[in-house]
Amino acid sequence: MRNAAKVCAQAARNGDARACRWHRGVTPGLVVCSVLGLAWLGSVGVVRAQTALDKDVPTAAPAPADNPPIAPPSAGATPEKIEDAKKTAKAAALTPIVPSPQNPLRPAFQLYAEIDVPILAIGLVFEGGRLVRTQPAFCGATGAPVCNRADLNALDRTTAGYWSPGWQTASDYGLYAIGVGAATLLFVDEGFWPGLNDAVVVAESGLAATAVASVLTLAAGRPRPFLYGDKGGSARNGADAGLSFLSSHAAISFAIATSTLVAMRRLHPHSRANWIVLGVGGAIASFVATARVLGGMHFITDAVGGAVVGSSVGVLIPSLHGSPVSIVPVAGDGGQRGMAVNVRF
Predict the structure, then answer these.
(1) CA dist., res. 198 & res. 203, Å (int)
(2) What pLDDT score does 91 carry?
């Protein structure tokens, strides 16, 4: 971010405002989530190769794709219709991606090529909407009147005019810290491939949160707090100055913290360490949201809105991913009944 600030300063001296807008538009959340997403996409080929090499390893259950489940056929169904039904079910089945066939119990989430690749792609495209915006804020720019504080609600009026580059930098470092910390926790706890598998879901949560935030900020066009004062320098004329509601930093931070907690609760449902994950993740995310307010980049309602969106997405995205392991009822000869573990290989 310091390099980006230097580039912006140099661009301002040279009159090249477009270069400055580009660097301001590249948010730390986009960097964190993009690195995790691209790392996973690059690893898919290696994972498939490993899966092919391990096909001779004895497994606890046959591959579901080879014998797709169908509803019980009627008594008059012909073998041809039953076979057609099986082919249809096989064609409609999703393609599971298992990072480690030798240890399928570790990943907290089951990834599917038809679901996760589109989520990552759409999230990146939505985040890119910030980069193509060129209109400055409707007030507060150089030569324009300062934004009117009377237009704000009583709560947001208390932080109008704030500006602190130090707190802005602190919020960036906090966002980097929670992203790196979440990935490190998963890698250390699960190993590289299962950890990368679950880190993808965390990255998807962050991208989904910033996608929602980008849509709202572009639609609202709310001026940032520093436009209600006389500080901000060249930042007052940038397109980013009109993107206050809601805070993408807060949304991404709370999404990462919440989705990481969901992953750890699946991996260790009875561990008290999950309270530590909740406390540390929530504290860092709250610090990021607070730093954005103290830095003059967002109002209090912007940060609260980002926290609500991030926490909600952090639960929603992991909920779309089932576990690679499921427990199913079985029945045998002689009326025997029991439970079996069904594992995807």
Answers:
(1) 9
(2) 77
Tokens of 315: 């639960």
Tokens 């802005």 — which residue? 168
250 neighbors 171 (Cβ within 8 angstroms)? no
Rounded Cα distance, 37 and 303, in Å: 25
Per-residue pLDDT of 269-280, as tens digits, reads: 999 999 999 999
Reduced 3-state DSSP string for the chain: CHHHHHHHHHHHHHCCHHHHHHHHHCCHHHHHHHHHHHHHHHHHHHHHHHHHHCCCCCCCCCCHHHCCCCCCCCCCCCHHHHHHHHHHHHHHCCCEECCCCCCCCCCCCCEEHHHHHHHHHHHHHHHHHHCCCCCCCCCCCCCCCCCCHHHCCHHHHCCCCCCCHHHHHHHHHHHHHHHHHHHHHHHHHHCHHHHHHHHHHHHHHHHHHHHHHHHHHHHHCCCCHHHHCCCCHHHHHCHHHHCCCCCHHHHHHHHHHHHHHHHHHHHCCCCCHHHHHHHHHHHHHHHHHHHHHHCCCCCHHHHHHHHHHHHHHHHHHHHCCCCCEEEEEEECHHHCEEEEEEECC
Q: Which residues pair with 343 in a beta bridge?
A: 325
Pairing state between β 337-343 and 111-112: unpaired
Tens-place pLDDT, residues 177-207: 999 999 999 999 999 989 999 999 999 999 9
pLDDT of residue 6: 46
Q: What is the pLDDT of residue 52?
A: 43
Residue 31 CA from chain centroid, whole number: 11
Residue labelled with tokens 């019980």: 72
Which pTM does this prediction carry? 0.76
Cis previous bond, 246, omega within 30: yes
| Predicted pLDDT of residue 32 | 53
Taking 50 as the pLDDT cut, the residues of the chain under it are: 1-7, 9, 11-26, 40, 42-65, 328, 330-333, 339-345
Distances (CA, A) of 88 to 69, 73, 85: 11, 14, 5
